[in-house]
Amino acid sequence: MKTAQNPHFVYIATNKRKTVLYTNCTDDLDSQMDLHRKQIIMNVRTFTSKYKVCYLLFYQRCIDAREAERRKTEIKGWRRSKKMELIYSMNPELEFLEIPTKEESHPI
Prior knowledge:
Blueprint (H helix, E strand, L loop, with lengths): L7 E7 L6 E6 L2 H13 L5 H4 L4 E8 L2 H12 L3 H11 L18
Antiparallel strand pairs: 1-2, 1-3
């Protein structure tokens, strides 16, 4: 059972060619990225499936769901160039990231 104290994540994912940026939030980053991959395989009609978005470029751990939702909304309002600056600040090589463990992810 998930509690109110579970960390939440804001993340930006992309497709293989890095032409699409998808911003969302979740309390289970591993399961969410797995869901994106499964939706592509199953050809489910979603934005992430249509554009084959399943590669993690950026994540930020938040204290709770409210903070994650606020941060997601903020980032979604940015131009692509500002989102790219944020991604480069964490991931300067634009590598596809592994899902962080609880020890690796730090709250904002």
